[in-house]
Structure formats: structure tokens, C-alpha cells
Design brief:
single chain, eight-stranded mixed β-sheet, disordered N terminus, 30% helix, alpha/beta, 584 residues, globular
């Protein structure tokens, strides 16, 4: 089966294409080729498009909390629509980082000489099904509506994305059919390192295998041996939780409970989870969930006035500026977690200033960004019901969710991913005939580059950007390096993300973690390390008696046996404790 025919089948499978009556007849009589009858049921438009010699795609969760259409099968389902839902200025900035990188590369006199990059950037709404629709639209050329369906090979060479691991799993499954490589800037699920299942997947963010290793070391370091676990209902949450439990097997850390935030969140489900948290003696709670999953949960959590929880967050959440408002500090202040390495993009701030409704009068995403930032509409209507504004307002400090470029992390990952493709493509174009890596020492044809040929060079690429080495191992993973971030009270009462240490996966075992404890502010604005145990320490003269059917972290203190005494406090810690027993 050819890739073109398979693309038609993929469209059919996700209800994107429909079959005409004549095609149904031709299927039964084998009279007409199916490829000539592919028709679009609806169109899915990119947010930004630029023409170029070589086209790459971008997938970003510019909206989140997508409301899925009713698919009861009794009528034609409406098209998936991201518009009208909450826009994420941070993800919008990620998309602009991709645009800036392409612009820089096209202006670079050395990189990709006499060739240019083009792109199609789509909004995934932070949902796998929409990401699936986006990548299918990418495969149909620059203009999906005007393309000759299922008759020409796609010009797409690579994809930047997706964000969440569940989205990347879906997108990768489609792209690998056409041997098109993708580089994720935020998907960390360890499952994506499986080259058998995801042969074209790369990432510029460390795998969760390294992150859960770092979290396990953090728990042991602070003697947190009784912890709760909160995760999303998706592959990312499942694999992360599984990996953490595996890492904790050789420690004395116990998991008190594991609760799941449902994919379709309800207040009832949230309150049930909060009841478990409130009743548990575990004061440290690990979170393996994304910003979109935590947003409705935290909205209900704050109404319950639950405090005293020491949150430990993963990279997908620990720098979520949407939770940096002063109203969040009483509930989330003191959070600690691991974030991917920050970088520097010198022109990003100036570039963001050029994106406004006046410059892009026909771009709905830019209009929505303005409505989100200013609460006004440059093109007011009865639908928006917002006061009018010029569309040329100055972007100020209070718009930090969009304008914070002092220490970009995910945006920097996007930037690196684009440059990785550019350097790989550049190396491909430098190939000398007779010395190439392909059959009979051949090179790729510059006017007919195949995505799998680009992947060969992507696997071997090695370059430096902003003083950092960028390369991929055999699994498509990058160097494991994390900053340790602590949520502290800022000067205006908001939450500031403060770096208090690092995890360097290149160091020897036991030397990866470096923490500046004196700089940490804990939950409740406390300077003392929180205690999270199932059972209090046993006093001298008593001993531990493990409770039947419960984890080893839970025990009772009973008097020492007759004729024996203990003259030390038996602490419920993960460190080894010497107990002196004296015979009378």
C-alpha cells in the first residue's frame, strides 16, 4: 500500500473525509480509483503559515480545556473548534519562538545557503484528537482546501511538537507511517524512548526516566517517606507514576495514595480526591499532571481552603505562569520541582512586540491573545462583547505569561528544535556525490529530499547554541539536565519561580543532585523542611511494630520486650538508624 493511499485511509478513520455516493458505487464495482474521489468534510486552518523551499510543521497547545463535540452518531458531528476556549499566552509565545528561529535561519548567510525554511503552525488545543487533525492537515500541503487530495506526496519534512506526551504519541504514530521525524519540546513520557514503537520521535527535553530518578532522590534527601501521588488520566501520568514507583523500590519511601484527575474533569471527582488528601497524614504530594489538567482541579481546591500541602511538581507544571497570581500563593507557595534547563533567545522580546492585531489583522489567534491580555477587542462585535481597543497597545510587565523572556525554557526548547532541523538539513545539503550515507554512497537530491533522509542526519547532528551542546542519543533523547525550582512570594505578592539547585544526569550516581537548602521557602511560608511520615518516631523504651497489611512506613510504637531496652529515638526516616539494645 502506498503512503498516499494510506493517507486517505487515515482521513477516513478520523472522520475527516467523506465518501461520495459515486465512490461507494466504485468501491463495490472497482470502477474508479478512490484517490480521485477524496473530498474534505471540513477544513482545519493553521494559525501561521510561511512559504519556503523546505516545509516543517509546528503543533502548540495555544488553547486548552477543549470542549469535545457530541459524537452520539445520530447526526454529522460539528468540526473541532479551539476558538472560544481559553488561550494560553505562554504556548502562544512558544509558537512565536518557532517563527523567530525560522526567520533567523532564513536570514543567516551561512546556514542553509540559498535555501529557506517554511512552516505551518497549528493549534492542538492541548488535546490528542486535535493534534491528530493538525498533523493530517500538514500532510496535505501548504493549502489543504486547494490541494489535490491523495495524489501528490507531502512536502512536509519534519514536525516540531507536540507538547503533551499523549498528543505526541498520536502524532508520532501518524508521522512514522510516512517516515517523517518529529522533535518534541515538552513530551517527557519514558514510553516515547521506545525506538520500536516510535522510530521517528526525537525530543530536546529529558525523558521522565531521568525526572522520576531526580524526584526519588529529592524525596530521600528530605526524608519524605510518606507521600501522596496525583496524576493525569493519560499515558504521561501512567508511565510517570509507574517509573517513580520503580525508582522508589530500593528506598524506604512509601506512597500513601495514588489519585487520578479524570480526563473529563468534574467537581464531584475533584472533591473526592481532596477528601483523600485532607484525611491522609501524607503532607507531601507529587503531581504528574499538566497545566490544563490542574486548572479546574485547583479552582475547586482553593475553595476548600486546604493548606499545609507541600507540592512536588514535574517540569510540565513547575513553571506554569498561569498559577503565579497572588491568589495562588496561600495554596501553592513552597512548591518545589524540576524544570527543563532555561536558555537565552536574544531577539525573542523584540519579536513578540511585533505581533499585534494591527500587524496581523486577519489572524484570529492574535485577536484572541489581545482579548486575553487586555480584556478588549481590536475588532469588537456582538460575539466578543468587549470594549474596543486599537490593537497597538504596549505589552507591559504584567503580561508576563506572554512577555516573560528572561529565562525561557519551553520556548528555548522549541528554538533548539528548529535549529536542530536546520543544522541537519544543512549537513544533508553539504553531502558530496559518491561520499553519501545512502545506497551506493549516494546523497539526497536537494530538490526532492525525503523525510527519512533528513532523519539520518538528525540522528547524528551535533551543534552548540547559546553555549549548550545539542545532540540526540540512539533513542532520540537529549542530555538530562534540570533546574530545581521553588515557588516563593514575589515582591508584589505573586509567585516567583526561584532556582535553588540542579540535577545533572551526566554526573556519577549519587552526585547528580545539588540543592541550596538555605534558599528554599516551604509550604506555609516556612523555613523548616516539612515532615511527611505515616507514623511518628518511637521514643526510647519503645520499638516499632509494623502494622499488618500496611506499608513499612506505617507502624505502632510498643514497649520493648522484657529484659531489653532501646536508649535511642527510632525515627521514621529513610536513613539507616543505629539502635542500641542493652541486655539487663
Amino acid at each position: 500500500m502506498t503512503s498516499l493511499a494510506l493517507l486517505c485511509l487515515l482521513y477516513f478513520a478520523v472522520s475527516v473525509l467523506t465518501l461520495t455516493d459515486s465512490l461507494l458505487s466504485s468501491i463495490s464495482t472497482a470502477a474508479a480509483p478512490a484517490a480521485s474521489k477524496c473530498t474534505l468534510l471540513n477544513s482545519f486552518q493553521p494559525g501561521f503559515v510561511v512559504q519556503g523551499d523546505y516545509v516543517i510543521g509546528g503543533i502548540f497547545p495555544i488553547h486548552f480545556n477543549l470542549k469535545m463535540p457530541d459524537l452520539n452518531g445520530t447526526y454529522r458531528p460539528p468540526p473541532i473548534n479551539c476558538n472560544g476556549h481559553r488561550i494560553d499566552p505562554r504556548a502562544f509565545r512558544w509558537a512565536q519562538s518557532m517563527r523567530l528561529a525560522v526567520e533567523e535561519i532564513n536570514q543567516n548567510p551561512v546556514l542553509l545557503q540559498n535555501h529557506t525554511l517554511g512552516y505551518k503552525i497549528f493549534d492542538s488545543c492541548g488535546y490528542p484528537l486535535t493534534g491528530q487533525r493538525a498533523v493530517l492537515s500538514m500532510l496535505n500541503g501548504v493549502s489543504e482546501e486547494n490541494s489535490s487530495m491523495c495524489t501528490n506526496a507531502s512536502s512536509l519534512l519534519a514536525v516540531i511538537g507536540a507538547s503533551g506526551s499523549s498528543q505526541s504519541i498520536v502524532v508520532s504514530k501518524i508521522l512514522q507511517t510516512f517516515r517523517i521525524p518529529m522533535i518534541s519540546y515538552a513530551s517527557t513520557c519514558a514510553c516515547l524512548s521506545d525506538r520500536q514503537k516510535y522510530p521517528t520521535f526525537f525530543r530536546v527535553i529529558p525523558s521522565d526516566d531521568y525526572q522520576v530518578k531526580a524526584i526519588a532522590q529529592l524525596l530521600v534527601h528530605f526524608n519524605w517517606i510518606w507521600v501522596g501521588l496525583l496524576r493525569g488520566d493519560n499515558d504521561y501520568g501512567r508511565f510517570a507514576a509507574k517509573g517513580l514507583l520503580r525508582e522508589l523500590q530500593d528506598t524506604k519511601v512509601c506512597v500513601a495514595y495514588q489519585e487520578i484527575i479524570p480526563l473529563l474533569y468534574t467537581r464531584q471527582a475533584g472533591l473526592r480526591i481532596m477528601k483523600v488528601m485532607r484525611n491522609s497524614t501524607a503532607k507531601v504530594v507529587l503531581v504528574f499532571a499538566t497545566q490544563g489538567e490542574m486548572t479546574p482541579f485547583l479552582r475547586d481546591y482553593m475553595t476548600q481552603n486546604i493548606t499545609g500541602i507541600q507540592w512536588v511538581a514535574i517540569s510540565a507544571l513547575v513553571k506554569a505562569s498561569v498559577f503565579s497570581g497572588r491568589e495562588y500563593y496561600p495554596y501553592l507557595g513552597g512548591t518545589i520541582g524540576f524544570s527543563n534547563r532555561n536558555g537565552h533567545i536574544s531577539r525573542l522580546g523584540d519579536f513578540l512586540q511585533t505581533v499585534n492585531p494591527k500587524t496581523y489583522p486577519d489572524n484570529e489567534l492574535v485577536h484572541e491573545l489581545w482579548e486575553s491580555l487586555y480584556g478588549c477587542s481590536p475588532f469588537p462585535s456582538s460575539v466578543t462583547q468587549m470594549p474596543p481597543c486599537s490593537g497597538q497597545e504596549s505589552l507591559l510587565e504584567q503580561h508576563s505569561a506572554y512577555m516573560n523572556t528572561s529565562s525561557p525554557r519551553v520556548a528555548y526548547n522549541v528554538y533548539k528544535a528548529v535549529y536542530a532541523i536546520a543544522h541537519s538539513l544543512h549537513n544533508l545539503l553539504l553531502c558530496q556525490p559518491g561520499r553519501g550515507p545512502f545506497q551506493d554512497n549516494s546523497c539526497a537530491q536537494s530538490n526532492n529530499i525525503q523525510p527519512w533522509q533528513l532523519q539520518h542526519y538528525l540522528q547524528e547532528v551535533n551543534f552548540h547554541i547559546a553555549g549548550e551542546e545539542v545532540a540526540f542519543d540512539a533513542k532520540g533523547d537529549s542530555v538530562p539536565y534540570f533546574d530545581i525550582i521553588n515557588w516563593q512570594r514575589g515582591t508584589k505578592g505573586n509567585i516567583a519561580f526561584v532556582s535553588v539547585g540542579l540535577f545533572d544526569g551526566t554526573k556519577a550516581i549519587g552526585e547528580e543532585l545539588l540543592i541550596q537548602e538555605d534558599r528554599i521557602m516551604w509550604a506555609g511560608h516556612q523555613s523548616e523542611v516539612p515532615v511527611s511520615v505515616c507514623s511518628a518516631s518511637c521514643l526510647p523504651g519503645s520499638r516499632k511494630a509494623v502494622r499488618r497489611g500496611e506499608p513499612i512506613c506505617c507502624f505502632d510504637c510498643v514497649p520493648c520486650d522484657s529484659g531489653k531496652i532501646s536508649n535511642q529515638t527510632i525515627k521514621s526516616q529513610s536513613k539507616s538508624i543505629l539502635i542500641i539494645v542493652v541486655e539487663k
